[in-house]
Amino acid sequence: METGNLFHSPLRKEVQTYGQIKQILAGETVLHENAFIQVIPIVLKGALRVIRTDEAGKEILLYYIRPGESCIMSFLGGIHYETSKVNAVAEEDSEILLIPVAKAGEWVKEFPEWTDFIFKLYHKRFEELLTVVNAIAFQKLDDRVLHLLKQKSALFSSKVIKITHQQLADELGSTREVISRIVKQMEHEGIVKLSRNKIALL
Questions:
Q1: What contacts 24+ positions apart, CB below 8 Å, involve 127-135?
Q2: pTM for this prediction
Q3: Quick check: 123 pLDDT over 80?
């Protein structure tokens, strides 16, 4: 996705003037929790996963950022000169557009198109966060495992997901032993097929 396809003129010209395109590798952290936010990332290719970490180091997956989307938390934190409350990590090799925080704040006042983009993102992320809260509060862990696998399958357009039991556990805020037991039971029930560092949805 080219930067020009995201917005119309004259915002497009501003984005091309002040934005910086960066290639990042899978596993690379774009936003660091507790660090001040200097840039707002917009995904052009690939995907980022946004996670929250507690004091004990346990993680929970909040949502994915797909092409044409950004992290609303980084935007809100950046324009208020606050530190990031989340980590944003490349789910795969990706291409991102970095917008300086100062410009992102200015554009809200200057370009209705940008403001609309931000509000739509806010609405989408709010609904996704509600889904996470509901899942943690009301869903059994095996349902959450299956839901996450389906999310990743849709993200990569593949029934075969390259992921370890430890990675699943990290994203769901659980332990590897518990997740291994769940996915083995899912395999027994014919829902998935397990292989080394891969899980296939059947």
A1: 128/62, 128/63, 129/62, 129/63, 132/60, 132/61, 132/62, 132/63
A2: 0.78
A3: yes
